[in-house]
Amino acid sequence: MRTDTPPTIYRKDYADPTYLVDTVEMGFDLEPSLTRVATRIFMQRNPAGSNNEIVLFGEELELVQLRLNGKVLRAADYKLAGGVLRIPGAPAKVVLEIETTTRPDRNTSLMGLYVSNGNFFTQCEAEGFRKITFFPDRPDVMAKYTVMLRADKKAFPVLLSNGNLIEEGDLPDGRHYAKWEDPFKKPSYLFALVAGNLVCQEEKYRLKSGREVLLQVWVEDGNLDKTQHAMDSLINSIRWDEERFGLELDLDRFMIVAVGDFNMGAMENKGLNIFNTKFVLANPRIATDIDFANIEAVVGHEYFHNWTGNRVTCRDWFQLSLKEGLTVFRDQEFSADMIGTDSGRAVKRIDDVRVLRQAQFPEDAGPMAHPVRPDSFVEINNFYTVTVYEKGAEVVRMYQTLLGRDGFRKGMDLYFERHDGQAVTCDDFRAAMADAGKRDLKQFERWYSQSGTPRVAAGVHYDAKSRTLELTLEQSCPATPGQKKKQPFHIPVAVGLLDSKGRDMPLRLDGEKSAAGDTTRVLELTKARQTFRFTDVAEKPVPSILRGFSAPVVLQYEYSDAELAFLMAHDSDAFNRWEAGQRLATRRLLKLTTAVQAARQSGHVVSFETVLGNQDQDSALSDALRITLRDETLDAAFRELVLTLPSETMIAEQMEVIDPHAIHIARQFMRRTLARDLRDDLLAAYKACGTPGEYSPDADASGKRALKNVALSYLVELDEEEVLTLAQKQNDEANNMTDRLAALGALTNSSAAGKAAALEGFYSEFEKEALVIDKWFTLQATARNADVNTVRTLATHPAFSLKNPNRARSLIFSFCNGNPSAFHALDGNGYAFWAEQVIALNGSNPQVAARLARSLDRWRKYTPALQEKMRHALQQVAASSNLSRDVAEVITKSLSN
């Protein structure tokens, strides 16, 4: 392993900046091979600072000249080492002028200023601005910016930056310029510029106040027919934020720019949002229903950052969830409101919880576990995690659960009243919520400071004589790296009780004079163990606990199979109705997995199909699914979610020792069994859920397509000619990418003779559509018959490039993270391939490499034979030369914890 250990940065060591910045003036002479940057910074000493030393950060820059208050500084006047430039003994007021050069066309990290397809783009969050110029690059240094861009007019006709365009014109020698001014103070991570050959769709929009603003979506030529949905999503986001939170767009224009080479999904730079093309470009030919929904959510997310992240930003990067968790919650609420129905909101809620359980719960249980507000990091890019984002959003949602929707709005209003234009902390947000709601939320702070997923064990005792029910809740939280013991959390637990006919019962807690009329009560669990006593309970009920997933916890309650089936049929809470089915399916899948393991250990396996077929198989699950499938009062989207089995990753999380091959065999057996049991109902659902006519991504139509296509995915398990013909027909005749891709996936996972031709035909038809070819790679990487050789072959395809993050994710990440059985092949070849790719990416794009490195961070959870091969692969990466901070942190923690 490398011997130079990167330093660890601790939250407890936060110190105020020694100098604050008032204004920044920047001039860019843009050339791909050598860009010159002239920066003038107006600074003043911070009264809260500890000394009179100016501290600036810079990476991969050539310092041409440095002037302080007009005086050229010599090398003896400052210190430059390790990417930090220090100027000691500076006066109280400073005008600092810096000239630097950078080489954007060599910047493969895609951080700072870089070139993609001949155009200039920037990505400055978290610490990319220091690759543009020397600067106090930290989020608590906020300033107003004026930016002058100069470039060749023919090569770069469009010049964009933050804020408002105040001047543009021509220069000698075929060059031109544009001057931009951002009237609002912002930290350097929100700086952006774009220069290139782009075209835009633009619309004018009148805000509630009557002010008219210009909205633009910029793309490469040839993509204008794919921008309408992004524009509509932006308009809907602006309107929603005005109506829901009273927040108005504060600039005269708002711009979205799409780029194909991008490490993230999108970036909320003030007024100039830069997006991965994946979250902008869409039309029925190239985008699925999921793509349309994701574009709406991500456009909303980045726009909502204009207030929750830009107008009020983070004091330091440990507070990242202050903006990200809050804004994820806002985009979740926005997407749910755009659907507009109670059932649609439930579907959205289920989707969000599935992401949390499949990605964040494992993170909480692994070596990279960290609190929503981390205490330390080596590389901040490694903390753009599902814990900070998705769990952070759940923490924000709990405020709304505890305070109510109106109370939460009051808290938001107070937050902006107190902190507009400031860089603040998670504690400041919590204080605003507590003060607005007149609540003591001191204990709630533990959601920010403690890592791990709490467990809530529930026990119920019903006394028929006294007509009372006692619900006892007990909380605990497993040890995580650096945190062995946890204090009790403040956990809202939403509860309902169902009578024998499936009706909600009125709820009255002991001591209340009368029932409030509510059939769902939010109980506040603040101690290690608490008992809540309900009175006037006429009969023994079936409890519905943690309705709406009211807290990000694991609920431990031993429902019987009959109770789960009852909840699936009757619970008025749609989330818990779905949850009952997931619990029932998980119980079956774990039993089948154990049977596979036992048969394999016995050494007398004729076929796993025979072994599993001999298991006691009652019909509770298939009967419950049949009832749901036939219930046309339920939205098609909800029925599709109920029919979708827990993923192999979810099942793995329920096991002490993960056996990916046994899980895969068991899940596939259950899919075939359900396909046989429900064949006629699945076929009826498939035929009933057609969406003839012009394509629309609305909730009703997309729900029907989802149900139709999950039915098809089950039916192809039967390997019947009739079904394979249906899949081929859908592939040939589909008028939208959702149905086309679903049919191609069904064929790929079947024995159909024409599947190779279908894959080739798909590529030929869409080879010029990069986002569609990403789907083509993913489909093959996650196919059931794929192995590491499949992926190695695809990696040599002319369309594959490891340098493009989207393409790398579509093939390498999809195989390593989305095809567990194939990746965890017993011969260890999947791990050897993983190590090769991490090392290769480390040399070009450390941020993407570190995310791939996370694929093995929980190696200790697997079977001993797999553990040894994983450890060898991790050590191979650790021993490689020039390991980046990003990758080194992940590998070190994976091997150490």
From TrEMBL:
Pfam families: DUF3458 (PF11940), DUF3458_C (PF17432), Peptidase_M1 (PF01433), Peptidase_M1_N (PF17900). It comes from the Bacteria. Residues 90-190 form the Aminopeptidase N-like N-terminal domain. Its cofactor is Zn(2+). The keyword NADP does not apply. Belongs to the peptidase M1 family. This is Aminopeptidase N. It comes from Herbaspirillum lusitanum. The lineage of its organism: Bacteria, Pseudomonadati, Pseudomonadota, Betaproteobacteria, Burkholderiales.
